[in-house]
Amino acid sequence: MALATSKGLNSFSQYTHLSSKPLSSMVVSSCSLSWISPCLSLSQKLNLPHSNYLSRNTATSSTNSVFCALETAPSEESYCQRRPLLLGIGALTANLQPTKLLFAQEVPDRYRAFVDYEDGYSYVYPTDWKEFDFRAHDSGFKDRYLQLQNVRVRFIPTEKKDIRDLGPMEEVIYFLVKHRYAAPNQRPTIYDMQERTIDEKHYYTFEYVLTSPNYSSASFATIAIGNGRYYTLIVGANERRWKRVRNQLKVVADSFRLLDI
């Protein structure tokens, strides 16, 4: 898809501010931009407001619901943290190759899109959330007032080609929640599991609660494999607020997409 602009790159440059870091940050004001070249020599991470976004879901999805209480086991995965580069753009349409077409579907009202061309993923988050650094994660956003209400994404290298290569969905999710997500003093419970297929890519999304003596958290997680990476998105909140925010956070979990890089 190729869209023209009335001012071209010269006009684009006058609305652009580069930080002191070498080509590592760009902020674009809400102006009359209608495209941005994918060939810019900088990290391609976009933080977009309500706008056209993401390839259209043309595949079917399947849902399996389960409930199971799990024993806990301590474990922690190691990830490389990278500071995300954001492009704040008022209105943007991308002139990209077909494999990177992201703007065919509307972002839901009251959400923004985070698009990371460099690391190959995208998702949406509530417009009133702000960016934050979450240890060992590649990107993250949180509620301005309720810090435990947040979304974060991380990934690790893998030789697997697809999430299905890890095994049956129930076994994979059971292992993750029991051995990766739960701390020694937490009792994990899985409430729902879903497998979705979008643009021939497969995603597992599941809902779980981690209960400890003094605090409980509820979350959705979406996992997927692509680009030689195993991606994990987790969005959650205090369990006491879960009924009020569950539907809002489910939109975030379901929005996660892999991009070819």
UniProtKB/TrEMBL annotation:
Domain of life: Eukaryota
Biological source species: Flemingia macrophylla
Protein name: PsbP C-terminal domain-containing protein
NCBIfam families: PSII_PsbP
Residues in PsbP C-terminal domain copies: 111-257
UniProt cross-references to InterPro entries, sorted A to Z: Mog1/PsbP_a/b/a-sand (IPR016123), PsbP_C (IPR002683)
Residues spanning the signal sequence: none
